[in-house]
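Obj: model holo form, ligand = pyridoxal-5'-phosphate.
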Amino acid sequence: MKDETKCLHSGYTPKNSEPRVVPIVQSTTYVYDSTDDVAAVFDDPTKSLIYSRFANPTVMAVEDKIADLEGGVGAMCTTSGQAASLLSVLNICSAGDSIISTPQIYGGTINLFAFTLKKLGIEVIFIPEDATDEEIDAAFKPNTKAVFGETIANPALAVFDIERFANIAHKHGVPLIVDNTFATPILCKPFEFGADIVIHSTSKYMDGHAVQVGGVIVDSGSFDWTNGNFPELTEPDESYHGLVYTEDYGKAAYILKARMQLMRDFGCYPAAHSAFLLNLGLETLAVRMKQYCENAQTVAEFLAGSDKIESITYPGLPGDANYELAQKYLKGASGVISFVIKGGRDNAVRFMDSLKLASNEVHVADIRTCVLNPASETHRQLTDEQLVAAGIEPGMVRLSVGLENIDDILEDLKQGLDKVEI
Ligand SMILES: *Cc1c(COP(=O)(O)O)cnc(C)c1O
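Output (holo C-alpha cells):
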C-alpha cells in the first residue's frame, strides 16, 4: 500500500460484522477463563493483553499504523513526545553512559538532555551538525550508546544529514535515533537512510488538530543489538524472569523491551480515547502534509520578497542553507517557516500581536496557522549561548502555516507586516 492508503487502512482490518472504525476499548483490564491463562500471559505479555498501562487494542492499532508508515517492525505510543524521547534513550542507556546529539533540536529535548538526563547520570555530548566526521568520531566515548538528531529541527529548520550520522553511529556500533516530528513519515522515512529508531511528538502534524498530546517510538528492526554494546538487550532481564530480548523477540527486541520493561515501570501509556483521536488525525495525514507544503512554499516565497524581513529559513526555498539536504531527504519542506523581522524582538512581537487570523500560541503543526517567538516563549529557559547553538535569534518568528485558504493567510501576514516600522 502507498502512504495515503496506509493512513486509512493500516493497523485495523475489521472482520465480518465488526465495526468499520477502530473501536475505543475503554478498559483498564482484560478477562481470562482461568488462572493458568493469566499466568501464561504474564510469561509472555506479547501473546495477549494484561493491563492498559502498557498495551491496549485501540492504542495498538495506531501503533501498527505508524510502524507501517515508517517502515518499522513495531511502535509504542507514549503520553507525550517528551516521554518518547526519554524512553528512546533510557531503553539503551543507564547511569554512566553517554549519547551524542546535535544541538539543533527541540527546546524541550535540550532541557531533557542537558539537565534531566544529566541528573540521571547520562551525559549528552552536543556536537554541531557541521562538525567534520573526524570531530564527531573524536566525541565518541567507550560508554556512548546512541546518536540523536531531528529530521527538520524545531525551530531552526535545519535538515539533519541522516545518512552521514547513521554511518558514523554504525561505525561506532551504536544506533541513530531520529526525531521525525516535523517531517512525518509522509515527507521523510528516516529508516530508508539508515536511522534505527524514530520518535515523534504526535501532538504535531500526526494529530494535526491540536486535540491531544502524545508521542511514539518506532523500531526499524535493523540494528544489531548483539554487537556487545547492549548487554541489557542480550543478557537475562531479572525483572522479567530472565527473558533475553534479542533471543526471545529477535528484530523487535528494542521496542518490546521498551514496552515490557520501561512502559511497565513508568506507565506513560496513552488512553484509548487519545489514540482514537490520534487515529482520526493520521487518516488524513498524507493529504494534509501535501497542502501544508504547498501553502508554506507560497508563504515563504512571499516573505522572501518583503523588505521588512531580515532573513528567512525554509528548506524548500532555493538558496536556503538546507535546500540541498531537503532535496535529498524530504518529499516537501513541511509547513513551518522561521524568519527574522528587521528590528529584533520588539518588531517580532509587534508583528505577531497584529495578526488577526494566525493565532499566537505555544503550538506548531496545527491545522490552523499559528505563530510563536521562540526566544521569549518555548525556548525562554535556554541561555543566549544555547539559543545561538539551537539556531535561534531573538527576533525570530516561527510561523506554522495552516490549511486556511492561502489568500487569507497571505492577507493576514501582509497587514501584520504593514504594522512593523523599520
Ligand atoms: C513538540 C515536540 C517534541 C515534544 O513533544 P510533546 O508532545 O510536546 O511532548 C519533541 N520533538 C519535537 C520536534 C517537537 O516539535
